[in-house]
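Assemble and predict.
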Amino acid sequence: MSETGLYVYGLVPRGALERAPDLPGVDSARPVELRCEGGICAIVSRVDLDRFDEEPLRERLADMDWVERTARRHQEVLDAVLAACTPIPMRLCTVYQDDAGLRRMLDEHQEGLLAALTELSGTLEWGVQAFHVPETPAAPPRPGGQPGETASGTAYLQTRLRQRHAAEHAEAEIARACEELHDALSGLALAARLGAPQRPEASGRDTPMVLNAVYLVANADRARFTQRTAQLGSALAPRGVALRLTGPWAPYSFVPAAVGGAR
Amino acid sequence: MPGLEPESLGRPLSYHRADMDPRGGGPANLADILERVLDKGIVIAGDVQIRLLDIELLTIRLRLLITSVDRAREMGINWWEGDPMLSGGAKQLQSENRELRERLARLERTIGVGDGETMTAKDE
């Protein structure tokens, strides 16, 4: 039997979960468990240190299939908690050697973590992505103009110029639409952040992503937020913008920097 | 279960992942998950955690893979440039790259293969 360590998915206030989610963990489907210290419980599962110690992990991080599987498991465990409470999500592959090490961490950071848990309590993260759906592109100008016409360099250049102006106008219009969208949704959120848009290969859409935003929304405002997003989606469609709403997520983007978060 | 609508009770929330794309639904997009679990989850080092450098390098690679950098710049989004860890890492990779190319060029000149100067200039 090889030694095991504790892989940590996230932290929740003690008492918020009756029991750990009934889900397989990241390693060999070992069950997810709770480990509590003071006012905080860590959501953990045992992992084989043959596979999850520093050296083997470094090799496995190069294996994208493994990274995907692990990231999805990590995510599913946190998802399962969302109905009961808002967890503080840990970064992928945070591993403690034993209970004592984990308890020491929870003890040392107790105050800051409790403050963060209180601050995030009753909130969830939502993602809104906007895509530019271009209208049917105009046919490229042909140097010959109308069939049978003699080629006219001037006419060709004028057509090109008109097209360029139209494209610039469309781009400005899309940027304006994104700004309005972000303003409207920020108004319903406790906090908002913009990220870089994803490439089409990553987003799975063949139209360009023009906005990649995340919002921290109070659970009480959840319906208002999702309905407003749907409304804005309908309103923006004729302007060439399609929306994608994702969530709810654990508040990854809104954990205070004071406890090692992104905000 | 405070604050959530009744219909979400007792069912896994992943089925509730709202997605207004009629082609969407099902499991969450991998890019959306990686953006979060690699880049945003909190960092309180475990005692067996992979050294931060490793996960950061992976994150840089994934960010480049996931995000459309040119498009982001056009829109004036340049958060990574204000991120000392990330821009530092990226700069380090760039300088390592340059150094390697220069060494290769010198070696090629020494053994008389290829045109080292042109190669260095072209790839910059």
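Chain A has eight helices and nine strands.
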